[in-house]
Amino acid sequence: MRYEEYNLEDLFLLAKKGDGTAFEHIVRQTEKQIYNLSLSIVKSNEDAEDLTQETYLRLWRSLPDYKGESAKSYIFRIARNLSIDLIRKRNRTPGSDTVILTADGEFERDIVDHDPDIRPDEAFIRRLTIETVRECISALPPPMRELIVMRDIDGLAYHEIASILEIPEGSVKSRLFRARERLRALIIEKNIL
Amino acid sequence: MSKHSCKKYDFMIDDYIDGLLSDDDVRKLEAHLSTCEDCRQSLRFSIALRNMTRSAALEFPVGLHERIIESVNEDKKAKNVGSKRKIFRLGAISAACMLLCLCCTAVFLMLPGNRKSESKLPPDCPMSEAATDPSAMLPSFNGSVNAPEKGEDEGYTYPVIEEPALSSPEYDENSPEDAAPTPDETCAEPEEVAPNDKNDYEYSSTDAPANPAPDVMTNNSNISDRLENAADAEKSETHPVASPEGVPSARPGGEEITLALLIVSGLLAVASFIAFLISLSSIRTHSSNKENKK
Questions:
Q1: Residue at a domain's end among B223, B238, B253
Q2: What is the reported pLDDT for B175?
Q3: Minimum CA–CA partner of A186 in chain B
């Protein structure tokens, strides 16, 4: 069986036994997603590269402890924890509005919904550019940015995100909805202004 | 359509785009979309935004993949070196424990109480039993005491006391079980005491008239004392002191410490040697797996 035919969990188990080629395939399959996630949290290309490297080192060292759970959640959790640790160490406050999660997981600040009367028309949609979308994603609070990246850019399933963030799946859906609403509002504000 | 009712459908649009709605909800939403232009516009915007977001991911940095693989390989090498050092350390500890074990064994065996004794008497000699029990050496006196005879000197003459026949089987006719050992048993006889030689008595001529007749029982007790002393002298050379039943023999403290050290070092040697073998076999298995893959 070729390595391309193995799923991620099987590759993890092979790498756990010391198979270096299996580990290389793991890196190849997940490196972009890990980089995007790290970048979404730390907002720095250099830091995101270092964090991506550190994530795979940490994965290699912790493979003996892997017990067959969701491989994607396993590696994303490592990347996320490393990124958050880096932010805490460097006392960074990404963006001007640091959103702090309360004990029950809700955002402390109220999300400013866009004016529901303003609906984007076709012309508006045509004016949208990828750069605008990137800027607006970058301007989101970190928890929202993280969710948008994991779901809409990296394509993780709800249950995988729930496992990484250690929150219920329902909470993932509701937070993601609020994050998308916030992004939509930012884009509309940017385009109107 | 009121904004309040549209808000309900706003929540369903994202799941509709992701294909996560149930058939029933899809029917409801599509029914609403067919009547609400605002919601249809909102759906189009959400689809465009989703597509753009997916494309908004930055390019993966060039060379990062190679750097990741290189850092992991370096970590593997460092781990292997560490494993070899660990094996070497385990081997050294194992050898040191074994050496300590051997030294303790040697010290333990060299201690005075533990040296093997060489008995002067053959093992089947009853006298060797008697060495631990001096009373066994004492013959039961059944001899006769002759009445004093007139000797050369006028006056009191010392009675001739027959030497107890230790070797004579006829000697003990009353209690055969107390018979002294026979010459056939080829035993070295203990030091003989010849009570019939009057020069052996400590006799002072000035005390002659007052000399009482020697007491036969006293003489016998002298004999038994001498035998006892001889037995003690021999025993102290060859046998440990026979301790009464139930009383543990006194050992010097050094032996106990040495024995404890011996046991501990032996256990440590075994444990560290097993760990050394396990580490060695795991390294060999890992190396052979690598070679097979190549």
A1: B238
A2: 47
A3: B49
